[in-house]
Amino acid sequence: MSAHEVVALTAPAALAQVRLLVVGDVMLDRYWFGDVSRISPEAPVPIVRIEKREERLGGAANVARNAAALGAKTSLLGVVGDDEAGSQVERLLEGGGIHSYLQRDAAISTIIKLRVIGRQQQMLRIDFEDAPSDEVLRDKLAQFNALLPHYDVVILSDYAKGSLVNVAEMIKAARAAGKIVMVDPKGDDFSRYAGASVLTPNKSELRRVVGNWSTEEQLTERAQQMRAQLGLDALLLTRSEEGMSLYTADAVLHMPTDAREVFDVSGAGDTVIATMAAMLGAGMDLGDAVRTANRAGGIVVGKLGTATVTRDELFPQ
Known about the structure:
- The strands form 2 sheets. A 9-stranded mixed beta sheet has the order 5-4-1-8-9-10-11-12-13, sandwiched between helices. The chain has a 4-stranded mixed beta sheet with strand order 3-2-6-7.
- It is α/β, with parallel strands linked by helices.
- It has helices spanning 3-15, 60-69, 84-95, 134-147, 167-176, 203-210, 216-230, 268-281, 286-300, 311-314, and strands at residues 19-24, 26-39, 46-59, 73-81, 99-105, 111-118, 121-128, 153-157, 180-184, 198-199, 234-238, 244-248, 252-255.
- A hairpin with a 6-residue loop joins strand 2 and strand 3.
- It has a single domain (13-27, 56-109, 129-308), classed as UDP-N-acetylmuramoyl-L-alanine:D-glutamate ligase (3-Layer(aba) Sandwich).
- The chain is globular and about 60 Å long.
- 43% of the residues are buried.
- GO terms for molecular function: heptose 7-phosphate kinase activity; heptose-1-phosphate adenylyltransferase activity; phosphotransferase activity, alcohol group as acceptor.
- This is D-glycero-beta-D-manno-heptose-7-phosphate kinase.
- Residues 20-308 form the Carbohydrate kinase PfkB domain.
- Keywords: Kinase, Transferase.
């Protein structure tokens, strides 16, 4: 029996023991599906007659949804508004078996991404977003420190919406407590993520920080330099159709994409970081965890919208 087959057999049982805390920007994804049959007489835009509506967890909540779908004991710490959308997020978390530590901020509205889809094509996205208040963010940091002893792995899911202004303090506290800390970064300054276990930028996010590259050697040099400067155990670069590259102090591991059919890439990064974190928590080594996450990403891009991968899809019998 190969090492991979052993991993496939043992991981599902081990996943049920993983205690995973997701922290970050919580959103509600709304999908309006309809038929497009004519152009508006008021402007040169299509008219979509809405026939179906769906609501799904988005942002950090989608990361938690992905981890829970794999069987990990998953909790979510974040901020939503004291509104109908916030209540819907709570209901969806409960339905997904995710323990909620959401804080309600009466001063803001819950972040909503509304997508209008006609004939299976996304035609429009409308975003509603507010940054959390300072008082709620202080309470969130205190709650994070109180929750930390009860979890094995921490995922910090940064969508640059204001929920992770204390990310440096969170990483420092989690690492001091011996936790695995995975970070999905945003912005042009990664210094606030220093000391994390693994950083998972995509190509455009990394390019904003290290500049452009013209060769694979140049990319490796810049990625390794940043990994060393930030004191990371590893840097995982997600590269869309080019697959993934894992940079550690000892090696560079390239994996081609595992996607058979690309239907929708939204939320694929959430699936990758959630899968990798869950597998590391279950005791997989870094290389096998990345290979499994790559396979999960290949599955989820074949689905519409922010979707998840189940344990049975990832480890078919």
